[in-house]
Amino acid sequence: MLLKNIQEWTLLLVIFGFTAILGNWAGYDVMPLEAIPGMIVLILICLAGFILHKLIPIDFPSVAYIAIIGVIVSMPWMPGSEQVVAWTSKIELLALATPILAYAGISIGRSWTDFMKLGWKTIVIASLVLLGSFIGSALIAEIVLRFQGII
Amino acid sequence: MSNEMLFGLWKDWRLHALVLITVVITEAIGTFSFTIGPGVVMLLPMLYALIIGLALYFTPLVKEKQSKNAEPIIVLGVSLLLAKIGVIIGPDLPEIIAAGPALLLQELGNLGTILIALPVAVWLGLKRESIGMTHSVAREPNVGLIMDKFGINSPEGRGVMAVYIFGTVFGAVFMGLIAGFLATLTPLDPLSFAMASGIGSGSMMAAASGSLVASFPEIENQIVAFAGASNLLSLSTGLYVSIFIALPLTEKLYKKMTKSDEDKKAA
């Protein structure tokens, strides 16, 4: 079962990665051949995270494993981390975000009717919710970072 | 992630081809920016990708099946995004540890949503919906909490779902638009806004930090590292901030605000 899972994950990650690499080329002028090693590293990190999530029987999200593995393999104290960073730096963050939002657009089409029912009051308040959280966090960060002398 | 949902999704070539074409076109168009007063608004390719994807849903090219299949693939895409954020955080880890106090404390800034949005919600005449709407940024853990406490058909449940839907449909676009704009408009440091970008949603974080990077390309890695670290913290602490601080505080303030209304009416 795990092997079957790994096969499905890998196929989908490769398809997603292929799209991202072409977007990376069209948008940020990185030749696909240069971007392939970095994409392989990212896919391997994801697979490692998914497998850990399956094997370890505690309720810890797979995305958290993935982020932590990503941090560990690229920490300055980690042997080989320079190579990992050099390869993955060929993949732009935004080149990964664009396909996510393309899939998201196709997916949320189904909730569009729900969205249209929300009404203007909801839209005003939901905007203020995001704005309030963003400004609140930025203000606190600014105060603490200044206090620490980092900025 | 329930893996059974994934089986055979790679075979949906129509879906993948549509996404591929959308991505190449939108990336080739590239980023546009325009100024409103002293601030700069960034239009990123991901914004066009969302709009084209949404438009495609209403064409015969996308069937119900493609739309359903797209959903679990978003999770895989977010996984790749988080792997990338991980390898951006790694090299900057010493710096992030140094900024640890700021990172931890700014999580409490998410309470800003209560202070700004709750009074307006009450003022607009919303009842207990406003508690669900404004206690948090309404991502999955917060929706779960409200459902657990009040149920899906309660006013609070409707409120949190409304903000959740707005966030899902427009959150990334909205954050992408305001992040670069506020960072160029206000005297606050872009790194403060980078930390604020991590509100517990991968796509909103990517949009917000992406528009910050477009405005301040010279500190790209620092911005993404701080935003990514803050997002991880939000994902892991957000629920507890909601349970122990945000939700009780929202309920208390709501009671206070509506009580003074009633007093006025009574007088």
General description of the model:
The complex is a heterodimer of chains A (151) and B (267). Chain A folds into 2 domains: 2-110, no CATH class; 118-151. Chain A contains 7 helices and no strands. Chain A has helices at 2-28, 32-55, 62-74, 81-88, 93-108, 112-116, 119-148. The N and C termini of chain A lie far apart (51 Å). The mean pLDDT of chain A is 93. With 267 residues, chain B is mainly alpha-helical. Chain B has one domain (74-266). In chain B, 74% of the residues lie in helices and 4% in strands. Chain B has 12 helices and 2 strands. Chain B has helices spanning 13-29, 45-57, 64-89, 93-98, 100-106, 112-123, 129-134, 140-150, 155-185, 190-197, 202-215, 220-266, and strands at residues 32-36, 39-43. Chain B is globular, with a radius of gyration of 20 Å. The interface between A and B is large, with 96 and 127 residues.
Radius of gyration of chain B: 20 Å
Task: Write out the strand line-up for the largest beta sheet of chain B, numbering strands in chain order.
Answer: 1-2
Give the strand content of chain B: under 5%
Number of strands of chain B: 2
Number of domains of chain A: 2
**Number of discrete domains of chain B:** 1
What is the number of helical segments of chain A per DSSP (H or I, 4+ residues)? 7
Alpha-carbon distance between the two ends of chain A: 51 Å
- In which range does the helix fraction of chain A lie? over 70%
Strand content of chain A: under 5%
Encode the helix/strand succession of chain A as letters.
Answer: HHHHHHH
Query: Structural class given helices, strands, pairing of chain B?
Result: mainly alpha
The low-pLDDT segments of chain A are none
DSSP, total strands of chain A = 0
Mean pLDDT figure of chain B: 90
Largest interface: A-B, 96 and 127 residues
Give a short overview:
Chain A has 151 residues and is an all-alpha fold. Chain A is 81% helix and 0% strand. The mean pLDDT of chain A is 93.
Strand-helix topology:
The complex is a heterodimer of chains A (151) and B (267).
Chain A: H1 2-28, H2 32-55, H3 62-74, H4 81-88, H5 93-108, H6 112-116, H7 119-148
Helix pairs in contact in A: 1-2, 1-5, 2-3, 2-4
Chain B: H1 13-29, E1 32-36, E2 39-43, H2 45-57, H3 64-89, H4 93-98, H5 100-106, H6 112-123, H7 129-134, H8 140-150, H9 155-185, H10 190-197, H11 202-215, H12 220-266
Antiparallel strand pairs in B: 1-2
Helix pairs in contact in B: 1-2, 3-12, 6-12, 8-9, 9-11, 10-11, 10-12, 11-12
